[in-house]
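Two entries, shown back to back:
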Amino acid sequence: MFGHRARSVRDDEAGVVEQEVVVRQGTAWSPAQIVGFVIGAAAIAFGVVALVRTGLDADEWFSPVETVLGFEHTQLLAVCEIGFGVLMLLSALSPAGRPLMALLSLIALAFGIVVVADAWAGRIDRWFGVTDGNGWLYIVVGGFGLVAALLLPTVAGHERRHVTERRDIGRPHTAH
């Protein structure tokens, strides 16, 4: 993350010392961070709109079921989406968050598969109000996030500085 590399060139006849300095600063980043940010922000927005439509009542987590952009939601699903989005945004803060992004994406992918496969259909439908459309959305988002977290590179940032200075580099002095 932090480092320093220098290369010097000497020209004894002209008395010039040229130095190239490469300074690595803690500016590493990954395109996966952008993906995590977009997924997190979208999940928060989606969850907030759903929560506004369903309301927030601690006694009624599983109802009412409301539609947001064609996807069914209960209060519980809306709160889960907001939590997922916040964690995804936290994972997007640095390349070190990629393992969290991969885990969250894997959870979304697995949840989508459970929904589409109708595993635990009675409970999943009642608790979250989800349909196959929701399942496919979570499969796509989870798969995309997982691929981004695992395959996109981390780019190390650096700054190059060229320093040229003229100085006497040990030429013999002649006496007059």
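entry 2 starts here
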Amino acid sequence: MKNKKGQSVELGITAVIVILLLLGTVVVLMLGYDMVEPSHLGVMVRFGEIKGVMENGFRWTGLFTTVHRYDLRTRKAVLELTGGNSAIDKTGQYVSAVINVNYRVKPTHETIMALYRNIGKDNVIADRLNLDAIIREGFKQATVRYDALEIIEKRQEVKELAKENIFNNFPAEYFEIENIVITNIDFSDGFKKAIEDKKIAEQRAMEEENKLQVVIFQQQQKITEYKALAEQIRLQSTALTELTLRQKYLDVWDGHLPQYMIASPETISMFLPSPNLVQGG
């Protein structure tokens, strides 16, 4: 027969075993619970098989079940197209820009399961779907249709075309685009200097043209004045010539009328003697 000390040891060992079993059971049971944060959906997978989608909360999903979570909140892609990563215009001139795209995963069970099945976990979907490349190419496809000066003049038109390209090529089966913002469209320093020099040259040419037009106008005014003066002199000269001829004729006239004279009715009167002279002769 066992003594009391031996019985106590056995009881202690038994108690420890029971406690360990209980703790093990609790741990195992806890492994069957999963939690999904707010604004997320989870894909439940057991031994490589999709078992369904878990909404946000804490629940029993079963032993050996893994839940892959997908964030449904707005995501932001920011691309800086600068340097060798820039877009180009149709002449090969570099065009830089900053593009911001806000998008989100479609919040449906079918979308979440398709993402896991076809693409992978949440942290790899942007890379595997080449979202940055889609955004970059959408902008490049727009700028290459214009030259740099057209891009400057039609900046909003270029932006709208780039947005349309990005929207049309974005994987719409998985994502919804909330907005696209394109800012800081710019060109190389050399090109901007060339544009500035051209503007200065055009401004100077315009100023010279304006000066030339002023000179032409002034010359035309002078010509008009000279023509008026010449006409005035001509008329005065004509009048003076007739008076001068008459005066000279009178200066050399001896007071006797010629026996014969050819004259016009307008001039004959000046050679007729007055009644007093006739009577006095």
